[in-house]
Write the structure tokens for this entry.
Amino acid sequence: MIELSVIVPTYNERPNVGELIRRLGVALQGIRWEAVFVDDDSPDGTAAEVRAAAQADPRVRCVQRLGRRGLSRAVVEGVLSTAAPVIAVIDADLQHDESILPAMLARLRGTATEAPADVVVGSRYVAGGGLDGWDAQRERMSRFATALANRMVATGLSDPMSGFFMMKRETFDLAVRRLSGEGYKLLLDLLASLPTPPRVAEIPYTFRPRRAGESKLDSAVLWEFSLLLIDKKFGRWIPARFLLFSMVGISGVAVHFAVLTLLYQVAHLAFTASQATATLVAMTSNYALNNSFTYRDQRHRGLSWWRGLLTFYAICGFGVIANVGVAGFLFERQGWALAAAAGALVGTGWNYAATRAVTWRS
Ligand code: GDD
Ligand code: MN
């Protein structure tokens, strides 16, 4: 029976696969372990590399996801694919120190002097932990994000942003249906999704420089982090994506008026032509913004960008009809302000639901 399943999310980590498996073998001697790589169809052929390794070592498995991206969701699928009672999550790039895994497992099970924990976190910020080769600026950013996260979710951890942690299967099962799944910070998501605070413990380690390949952390990660925090705060009432979608909608109104003013007031074009152009520009800008922010994880590129734009135009066309229809209906009874607000709400609701189902279906 397997005691420990190590979930390894990968995207373009081919050169690190063999070395990680070798190191896990060294670190986990005496423990019955398996490693589940969850690869999002990396163009560098990581999945093929994992399968080749699995031929030589039956403790290695590969879950390959097609047409999807996302670190947290990849890890969730990995956890769901195993029956192990204890699950660890570790990056493939050897930045996390696999040699503390046995200590994490021991801490989870409890010792003569320490009670068992539900979640054990590899921490950069407890005494004995650290950051190898980080400049002051990057460390400040990381500490700021950590403080922000701790303000939103009371975790009792010094490093709630860690991507290196271990948990009991029962703990994961309690949270799995409430997870946002957005972005990178599965641990934070998990802690915020549990019905009662888990018993947590931290084990220090030094975050090493990446061994090969490059980090996937870009501006999008910061964005996804905010999305996760919003979702954890307000998600019970309003999905974070709807909030973002509405914010983009408001920006579209500003774009519309800017273009309209330019064409009608400044360039003295006919009103209908100005209005039609302004509508088209605003719709296009809404599409582009939603595509790069609201649905960053399902972003359309190349030819698919244009196809997405056409569906967006078509759907928002109906949205306008719904908006005007509802507002017209309420105008007599409720007055213009309420009628306009209701029209906008129904239009936005339709646009959100329909573009989510068609333009950015995942
Ligand atoms: N399946 C999948 N899909 N894996 C991904 C994706 C994705 O979309 N994006 C990244 N990964 C994998 C990488 O291949 C790597 O194994 C791991 O997730 C972490 O990605 P990095 O790009 O190396 O992230 P980082 O080093 O900047 O940040 C990591 O360490 C921090 C400190 O512990 C992450 O684990 C952060 O969550 C963590 O805070
Ligand atoms: Mn990394």
